[in-house]
Write a structure and sequence with these properties.
With 385 residues, the chain is mainly alpha-helical. It is built from 19 helices and no strands. The longest helix has 26 residues. 50% of the residues are buried.
C-alpha cells in the first residue's frame, strides 16, 4: 500500500475517532486503538517507517507532558502513598503473571518473565489522556495517580533492564546525555523564556522537541528507551509549565492533534485478530490475571487514602499500553516469545487500555465538583481532545 494512501486512511480514521469521541463521550485514545485494530485486520493497513517514528515520538511527547503535569510538592507530600500504590501496582501483577505463565501455562522462564513485565505496566499515555479529558490533571487525585503511575513504570522499565537488556557501551553516553539534557533544560529555561518566549514561532516547543529527539537517539543507540528520561525531564520543568499554562495548552494541541493519534492507531494495528481468536481462552486468562493482581495490589491502599475515588484510581492504574507493547515486542524480536504469545500479550495490553478506562469513565469518574476544584490555570481540555 502506498505511503500517501496509508496517510489518507490514517487521517480519516483519526478524524472519525475524534468525532466519535465527542458523540459517545469516550476517550479518543480508546477509539483510536479500536480503529487501529479494524484498520490492521480488515483494511490491510500496515505501519510504514514514518508512522513508526510519529508513533514513537508521540509516546515520548505524551510521557514528557505527563511528567510536566506532576506537581513536585504534591509528590513530596504524597511520597508514601504514591510509592506504595505505584510499587504494588507493579509488583503484584509482575509476580502474579510471571508465576501464572510459568507454573500454569508452562511457558519458559524468560517468556514468563516477559509476560510479567508486560502485564505489570500502567499506561502513562492513557492515564494522562484521560486525566486531561476529564479535567483532573491539577486536582489532588489526578496528581496522585500520575505520581503512582511514574513509580509503576519505573519498576517496569527497571525489571526489563535488569532481566533482559544487555548493556552496551552506549549506555554510558545515554545516561550522561540524559542528565545533561535535563540539567540544561532546567538551567536555561528562565533565560530562554525571557529571551524567546511567547512568540508565534514557538521556540519553547521546538526546544523541548529537540531535547526529546536527542534522548530518543541515544536511547536507541543504547538499545534502551527514552520514556523514563522524558518523564523525568517533564518533572524537572514542571514548574515552568505551571507558571505558563498557555504553553501547556499549545503543547497539548501539538500532541493530541498530530502525534498521539498515530501512537494509539499503531497500538491497535499490532493486534492480530486471527491469532487472538485462536487463543481466546488464553487471552481471557491473562487479562483476568492482570486485572485481579492489579486490583489486589492497588485497591486496598486506594481505599485507605482516596476512599471516595478508590475504584477510579484502581481502574486507571490497571491500564497498560506503551511499556506493555515495548516489552512484548522486545520478547518477540529476541526470540523469547513466539508470534501467538506476542499477539495474545499485546491484545491483553491493548484490552487493558480500553476496558478498565471505559468502566472508570462511565461508572466511577469523579464528579464535576472535584473537577471544579482544580486551579483556574488548569485549562482542562474538553472531552474528545
Amino acid at each position: 500500500m502506498e505511503n500517501l494512501l496509508i496517510a489518507v486512511i490514517a487521517g480519516l480514521l483519526v478524524l472519525l475517532a475524534s468525532v466519535a469521541s465527542v458523540e459517545l463521550g469516550v476517550s479518543v485514545a480508546l477509539i483510536e486503538i479500536s480503529l487501529g485494530v479494524v484498520a490492521g485486520n480488515f483494511l490491510g493497513l500496515t505501519s510504514p517507517p514514518w508512522m513508526d517514528f510519529l508513533a514513537a515520538f508521540g509516546s515520548i511527547l505524551l510521557t514528557f507532558l505527563a511528567g510536566a503535569e506532576v506537581d513536585a510538592r504534591v509528590m513530596q507530600e504524597k511520597l508514601k502513598e504514591s510509592v506504595l500504590i505505584g510499587g504494588l501496582s507493579f509488583a503484584a501483577p509482575f509476580v502474579g503473571a510471571w508465576l501464572f505463565c510459568a507454573w500454569v501455562l508452562g511457558w519458559s522462564t524468560p517468556a514468563a518473565q516477559i509476560a510479567g513485565v508486560a502485564l505489570s505496566t500502567t499506561s502513562l499515555a492513557v492515564v494522562y489522556t484521560v486525566l486531561v479529558e476529564t479535567g483532573l490533571t491539577l486536582t489532588p487525585i489526578g496528581k496522585l495517580i500520575m505520581a503512582s503511575t511514574f513509580v509503576t513504570d519505573f519498576g517496569t522499565a527497571l525489571a526489563l533492564a535488569l532481566l533482559f537488556i544487555r548493556p552496551t557501551w552506549w549506555l554510558v553516553p545515554f545516561l550522561g546525555v540524559s542528565v545533561l539534557v535535563i540539567w540544561a533544560m532546567v538551567a536555561l529555561q528562565p533565560w530562554f523564556f525571557a529571551r524567546y518566549g511567547e512568540r508565534v514561532i514557538e521556540p519553547e516547543i521546538k526546544g523541548a522537541v529537540a531535547a526529546l529527539l536527542v534522548l530518543m537517539f541515544f536511547a536507541d543507540k543504547a538499545q534502551s528507551h527514552a520514556v523514563l528520561p522524558a518523564f523525568v525531564l517533564g518533572l524537572a520543568v514542571a514548574r515552568i509549565f505551571h507558571e505558563h499554562p498557555e504553553l501547556t495548552r499549545r503543547f497539548r494541541v501539538v500532541a493530541f492533534a498530530l502525534l498521539t493519534p498515530f501512537f494509539f492507531l499503531k497500538g491497535g494495528m499490532n493486534v492480530s485478530l486471527k491469532l487472538v481468536w485462536a487463543n481466546l481462552g488464553l487471552l481471557g486468562l491473562l487479562f483476568t490475571v492482570k486485572q485481579v493482581t492489579k486490583i489486589a495490589g492497588v485497591y486496598p491502599l486506594a481505599k485507605r487514602w482516596v476512599p471516595v475515588n478508590a475504584m477510579f484510581t484502581t481502574l486507571l492504574m490497571s491500564t497498560g499500553l506503551t511499556f506493555g507493547t515495548i516489552s512484548s515486542l522486545y520478547g518477540l524480536n529476541a526470540g523469547i516469545l513466539d508470534r501467538a504469545q506476542f499477539s495474545v500479550l499485546v491484545t491483553v495490553v491493548v484490552a487493558s487500555a480500553v476496558i478498565p478506562t471505559v468502566i472508570a469513565q462511565r461508572w466511577f469518574s469523579p464528579g464535576p465538583a472535584l473537577r471544579r476544584a482544580a486551579p483556574p490555570s488548569a485549562s482542562p481540555a474538553p472531552p474528545g481532545r
